[in-house]
Write a structure and sequence with these properties.
The complex is a heterotrimer of chains A (418), B (327) and C (224). With 327 residues, chain B is an alpha/beta fold. Chain B contains 13 helices and 6 strands. The chains are: A alpha/beta (418), B alpha/beta (327), C mainly alpha (224).
Chain lengths: 418, 327, 224
C-alpha cells in the first residue's frame, strides 16, 4: 500500500514539475517576444482573428475595356465594401486570371478610399476574369502578422481592344473643327479681297518708331527671342516678328543684335536676319556675330544679356518669346539704361513684370497676331479674324454653360469634362 | 562713378569678412533691440518721405540698399509672427492627413537650385511629414537637378529630426528614381509603366529589386502625388496628364510667381491644394507643427513686402505732389 | 524645292501629331513618342552648333582685341574648366570600383556645381527681389483708374500674403482682414484674368500652328 501511494505521489509530482516547467518556459518566451503577441501558436491563434476580421467584399463591381486607348488596359471599378466604415478594410486587391477556374493572381492593389483600378498589362484581344478582394491585415516592421480577405464574385471575361477614336476627346475635336473651319473660311474670304478691321495694338504700332529711334541715336537694337527652343510656338512667332524687325533695321542700316539661348534658334535667327539684309540690298552689312549663342542656362543667359545691355547701351530692346523668371531681370536692366522696350510673351506669369518694366507689352495672343499685323498679308489677317470668331463661339458657350449650371442643368459641364 | 563703385564693393567685402571671421557666433538681437531697430528703420523712411515732398527723389540704389537691409536684418532678430493659413494650404494638409500609413506618394521635384530658397523649405516640411506618418515616398524629377534637391531635402529633414534617420530606410520607405528627360511625355509614359521610364533608381539599382516598388507599375498604384515646381515642365503638365487622364490626386508647391497661374486648376478642383511661395511653405510648417526655414524666411519676406509697399506709397505721394505743383 | 520640302515635312509631321491626339490605335499612338525622341536627338546634336559658335566668336574677340575681350577670356576659361573636370571625373568614375558618375557627390564636378554654379544662379535669381522693389516703386502710380486698381491689388496681395497684413488688420473681424482680401483677389479676379488670358493664348496657339502646318506662315524658313 505504502509503495502504491508513493508511486502515485511521484507520478503526480513529476506531472506537476513538468507542467510548471512548461508554463515557465512559455511565460519567458512571451516576455522575450513581446507582451502584445498571443501566447498560443500563430496559426491556432490567428485563425480566430482572421475569421472574426474577414471583411465583406466590395459591391457593384464593373469591369470594362478602357475606352479611347490603344488597347492593353481594362478598367475595374467598384463601390466600397460595407466594412470599410468599420475599419475592417485596409486595401483592395485586384485578382486576375485568364480562365474562370483560376488560378487568380494579384494584378494590383489600391488603398482604402480608392474605388477604381486600371490594369495596364492586359493583352489585347485576350479575355480576362477579375475578382476584387477587400483585405484586412496587421503588419509589423513591414511584415504581415495576419491577413484576411473577402473576395467578390468573378467578373468577365473582358477583352481589351484598341479604339480608332478617343471618344473622351470628342468635345476637343468639335472645338478644333469649328475653330479651324472658321480660320480657313476667313483666310479664303481675305484672299478673295474682303478687308477686315483689326484694332490697333500699341506695341506693334511702335515697332517702326522704336527702330527709327535707334537709328537716330546711332545705337544698336537688341532682339531677345526668349529662352525656349524652336519646338515652342512662341519662339516660332518670335522668329517671324524678328524677320520683320530685321527688315526695318536693315532698311535703316541699323545694327540689330540677337543673342540667343538655344542652338536651333541661333540657326533660324541667323537665317532670318541674313535674309532681311539681303532683301533690302545690303547683304554686306550683315555680320555673323550679330546672332550669337550665349548659353542654355536660364540665369547665365540673363546675366550675359544684362552685361551686354549695361556695356553696349542699346537704344531699343525687343523681348519677344517665352520667358520665365529672368524676364524682370532683363526688363529692369533695359529700363535702367533708358532703352525703349517692346515686350511680348504668352507666359501669363511674366506678363505683369513686362507691363511694369516695359514701354509696350504684347499680351498673350497679341504676340501671335503681331506677325499678321506687321505683314498685313490678307491670308494672315483672315486667320486673325477666324481666331476671333472662335473666341466668340467659346464666349457664348461659357455664357450658356454658366446659365445652365445656375439652373442646375449639368449638361455643359458633362460635355466639357468628358 | 567707378571709384565710388570700387569703394562700395570694398565695404561689402569688408562687411562679409567681419561677419564670417570676426564675429564668432551669429548675432541675435533681443526683442527690445529688434523693436528699436525697426523704429530706426521707420525713421529712415520718414526722412525719405520728407525728402520726396521737398522734390529730392531717391535713386534706385537707395531702394536696393533698404530692400537688402530689410531682407537681412530679420535673420538677427528674435521675432515671431502669426502665420495665416490659406484654404489651399489647408487642403493639402487635409488630403495628406487622410492618407493612412503605408500609402504610396509620388514626389516630383521639378525645380533647380535658383528656385530652391523658395521651394526647398516646403519640400523639407513635406518629407518630414511623410516620414513621420509612415507614407512611402517615390521621388523623381522632370528637371535635371530635381532629384539632387530631393536628396538635399531628405538630408535636411534627417538633420532636423535625427530620430527619423534611424527609422527610415532607403528602398523600403523612400526611393529616388532620378531624372528622366522628355518633359510631359515622361508623365504620359509613367501612366502606363513606371519601369519603362525608370528601369533603375538613382543608384542604378534595378526597378524590380526595390521593395517599395513591388506592385507599383503605374499611377493606379499610387495614392497621392506632390509636385514641387518652378516652371515648365511642372504643375500644369501634371494636371493636364496625370490628373485629367489618369485621375491621380495631385497637390502642388509652386514659387510665388508661378502660383497665380495655377489657381484656375485649384478652383476647378483639378488640384487638391497649393503651397504658394514662402508663405505657403510657412503655413504648411505651421499646420504640421514643425517650424523650419520657411517660418524663419517669412519674417524677411514680411519686412521686404512692407518696405516695398512703403516705397509705393512714397512714390505715389511724390507723383501727386508734383502733379499738384505743375497745376 | 528649297522651300517646298520643309513645308511638306511641317505639314506631314503637324498633321500626324494632330491625328495621334485623337486616334489611339496603332501605329498612331507611337507618333508622339517617335517625334519627341527625334526632336530630343536633334536638339542634343544642335547644342554643338551653339557651343562652337560661342567658342569661335569669343576666340575672334580675344585675338582681335575687340571691346570687352576679357569677358571672352573668362568664357573660354570657364568652359575649359567645366569640360575638363566633367571628362576627368567621368573617366575616373568609369574605371573606379565601384564605378560612379561624374555628377555624384564628392567629385570635383559636383564641387564646382555646388560651390560655383549654384551660388551664382541663386544670386541672379535673388536679384529679382531688388528689381521687383524698383519696378514697383516706379510703376505703381495711380495715374488713372486701371493703374489705381493695379496699385490696390498689389497693396492687398503683398501685405495679405505675409503675416504683417493680419497684424495691421487684427482689430477687424477675421473675414475682413488683409489675408482674406488677398485670398479673394487670388481666387476670383486673378483666376478670372488668368483663365481669359489662357483661353486667348490657346486660340492664338491654334491659329498660329494651323498657319504653320498649312504652310501659310513660312517666314520662319527665311523671308519670302
Amino acid at each position: 500500500m505504502k509503495f502504491n501511494n508513493l508511486f502515485r505521489f511521484s507520478v503526480l509530482f513529476r506531472f506537476l514539475l513538468i507542467s510548471s516547467l512548461l508554463i515557465l518556459l512559455l511565460l519567458i518566451s512571451s516576455s522575450v517576444f513581446g507582451q502584445d503577441k498571443p501566447v498560443v501558436s500563430d496559426t491556432l491563434n490567428y485563425d480566430s482573428i482572421i475569421t472574426a476580421s474577414k471583411p465583406l467584399p466590395p459591391v457593384d463591381i464593373q469591369v470594362k475595356d478602357e475606352p479611347g486607348d490603344a488597347g492593353g488596359a481594362i478598367n475595374i471599378s467598384w463601390k466600397p465594401s460595407p466594412d470599410e466604415k468599420n475599419g475592417k478594410v485596409k486595401e483592395y486587391l485586384i485578382l486576375r486570371s485568364k480562365s474562370k477556374s483560376g488560378p487568380f493572381k494579384e494584378a494590383g492593389n489600391t488603398t482604402v478610399g480608392v474605388t477604381s483600378y486600371t490594369d495596364n498589362k492586359a493583352d489585347i484581344g485576350v479575355g480576362f476574369y477579375y475578382k476584387v478582394a477587400s483585405l484586412n491585415f496587421d503588419k509589423e516592421n513591414g511584415n504581415y502578422l495576419w491577413k484576411s480577405m473577402g473576395e467578390s464574385e468573378i467578373y468577365g471575361p473582358v477583352k481589351s481592344t484598341a479604339q480608332w477614336f478617343n471618344v473622351k476627346r470628342l468635345n476637343i475635336f468639335i472645338g478644333i473643327i469649328i475653330l479651324c473651319a472658321a480660320i480657313i473660311y476667313f483666310i479664303f474670304a481675305a484672299k478673295s479681297g474682303k478687308s477686315f478691321y483689326i484694332r490697333k495694338i500699341a506695341g506693334i504700332e511702335e515697332v517702326e518708331n522704336a527702330v527709327g529711334r535707334a537709328t537716330e541715336m546711332g545705337r544698336a537694337i537688341y532682339y531677345i527671342p526668349g529662352i525656349n527652343d524652336m519646338d515652342d510656338v512662341q519662339t516660332l512667332a518670335s522668329m517671324t516678328i524678328l524677320g520683320r524687325v530685321a527688315t526695318f533695321a536693315a532698311e535703316n542700316d541699323t545694327r540689330i543684335d540677337v543673342p540667343v539661348s538655344r542652338s536651333l534658334v541661333m540657326v533660324t535667327a541667323k537665317e532670318m536676319v541674313r535674309e532681311a539684309y539681303s532683301k533690302v540690298g545690303r547683304p554686306d552689312s550683315f555680320h555673323e556675330d550679330q546672332v550669337r549663342y550665349i548659353t542654355d542656362d536660364q540665369f547665365g543667359y540673363a546675366a550675359a544679356i544684362d552685361g551686354l545691355f549695361v556695356r553696349e547701351k542699346p537704344a531699343t530692346i525687343f523681348m519677344i518669346g517665352a520667358f520665365f523668371a529672368e524676364s524682370l531681370i532683363i526688363a529692369e536692366t533695359g529700363n535702367s539704361i533708358g532703352a525703349i522696350q517692346i515686350a511680348g510673351t504668352a507666359m501669363p506669369a511674366q506678363l505683369p513684370f513686362f507691363v511694369a518694366a516695359c514701354d509696350y507689352t504684347l499680351i498673350g495672343e497679341e504676340l501671335f497676331a503681331a506677325s499678321a499685323y506687321l505683314s498685313r498679308e490678307p491670308k494672315l489677317l483672315g486667320s486673325l479674324k477666324g481666331q476671333d470668331f472662335g473666341k466668340a463661339v467659346f464666349l457664348i458657350a461659357i455664357i450658356i454653360g454658366v446659365i445652365l449650371e445656375s439652373f442646375g442643368i449639368p449638361f455643359s459641364k458633362y460635355f466639357m469634362a468628358h | 562713378m567707378k571709384r565710388n563703385e570700387v569703394i562700395t564693393v570694398g565695404l561689402l567685402v569688408f562687411l562679409v569678412f567681419i561677419l564670417k571671421f570676426i564675429i564668432p557666433k551669429p548675432v541675435q538681437l533681443s526683442y527690445t533691440v529688434s523693436m528699436i531697430t525697426i523704429i530706426l528703420l521707420g525713421l529712415v523712411f520718414v526722412y525719405i518721405l520728407i525728402r520726396t515732398l521737398q522734390g529730392r527723389l531717391i535713386g534706385r540704389r537707395v531702394v536696393f540698399l533698404l530692400v537688402g537691409i530689410s531682407l537681412s536684418l530679420p535673420f538677427f532678430m528674435k521675432l515671431t509672427l502669426n502665420i495665416p493659413v490659406s484654404p489651399e494650404v489647408r487642403s493639402v494638409y487635409d488630403a495628406l492627413q487622410k492618407l493612412p500609413p503605408g500609402s504610396k506618394v509620388l514626389a516630383s521635384f521639378d525645380y533647380d537650385p535658383p528656385s530652391a530658397p523658395e521651394l526647398q523649405p516646403m519640400a523639407v516640411a513635406f518629407m518630414k511629414y511623410a516620414f513621420d506618418h509612415g507614407l512611402k515616398v517615390i521621388i523623381m524629377g522632370l528637371w535635371p537637378q530635381g532629384p539632387q534637391q530631393a536628396d538635399q531635402a531628405i538630408q535636411s529633414a534627417f538633420k532636423a529630426e535625427p530620430s527619423l534617420k534611424k527609422k527610415i530606410k532607403y528602398g523600403r520607405d523612400y526611393v529616388n528614381l532620378g531624372f528622366q528627360a522628355g518633359n510631359e511625355f515622361v508623365i504620359l509614359r509613367m501612366g502606363e509603366s513606371f519601369k519603362a521610364m525608370f528601369p533603375s533608381d538613382l543608384n542604378n539599382t534595378p526597378y524590380d529589386s526595390i521593395p517599395l516598388l513591388n506592385n507599383v507599375s503605374n499611377f493606379s498604384n499610387l495614392d497621392f502625388c506632390m509636385n514641387f515646381s518652378a516652371g515648365k515642365p511642372g504643375t500644369a503638365e501634371w494636371v493636364q496628364i496625370a490628373v485629367d487622364r489618369f485621375k491621380l490626386p495631385v497637390a502642388a508647391g509652386n514659387t510665388a510667381v508661378q502660383a497665380p497661374m495655377v489657381y484656375p486648376y485649384l478652383n476647378s478642383h483639378q488640384l487638391v491644394g497649393l503651397l504658394g511661395g514662402m508663405s505657403g511653405g510657412a503655413a504648411f510648417e505651421k499646420l504640421t507643427k514643425k517650424p523650419g526655414k520657411a517660418t524663419t524666411y517669412i519674417l524677411s519676406q514680411s519686412f521686404a513686402h512692407t518696405v516695398i509697399v512703403i516705397f509705393i506709397i512714397i512714390g505715389n505721394i511724390a507723383y501727386f505732389s508734383r502733379k499738384k505743383e505743375n497745376k | 524645292m528649297k522651300r517646298e520640302i520643309p513645308v511638306a515635312i511641317t505639314f506631314i509631321v503637324g498633321t500626324a501629331y494632330l491625328i495621334a491626339y485623337f486616334i489611339p490605335h496603332k501605329p498612331f499612338n507611337y507618333f508622339e513618342n517617335w517625334f519627341n525622341d527625334w526632336f530630343a536627338v536633334i536638339a542634343a546634336f544642335a547644342i554643338w552648333l551653339g557651343v562652337l559658335n560661342l567658342i569661335k566668336i569669343s576666340t575672334i574677340k580675344i585675338f582681335q582685341k575687340k571691346p570687352d575681350w576679357p569677358y571672352s577670356v573668362l568664357i573660354i576659361i570657364s568652359f575649359v574648366i567645366i569640360v575638363f573636370f566633367g571628362f576627368y571625373e567621368g573617366y575616373k568614375g568609369l574605371y573606379a570600383h565601384p564605378s560612379y558618375s561624374f555628377r555624384d557627390p564628392g567629385t570635383s564636378f559636383d564641387w564646382l556645381y555646388v560651390n560655383v554654379y549654384t551660388p551664382l544662379s541663386a544670386t541672379m535669381f535673388a536679384l529679382l527681389a531688388f528689381f521687383v522693389a524698383s519696378a514697383s516703386y516706379r510703376a505703381f502710380r495711380a495715374r488713372n483708374f486701371e493703374a489705381t486698381l493695379l496699385l490696390l491689388a498689389a497693396f492687398f496681395v503683398m501685405l495679405g500674403r505675409v503675416p504683417v497684413g493680419d497684424i495691421l488688420t487684427s482689430w477687424l473681424p477675421h473675414q475682413y482682414q488683409l489675408s482674406q482680401w488677398a485670398n479673394w483677389i487670388m481666387n476670383v479676379p486673378n483666376t478670372a484674368g488668368q483663365r481669359a488670358i489662357m483661353i486667348g493664348i490657346a486660340l492664338g496657339l491654334v491659329s498660329t500652328s494651323l498657319r504653320i502646318i498649312l504652310g501659310l506662315e513660312r517666314s520662319y524658313l527665311g523671308n519670302d
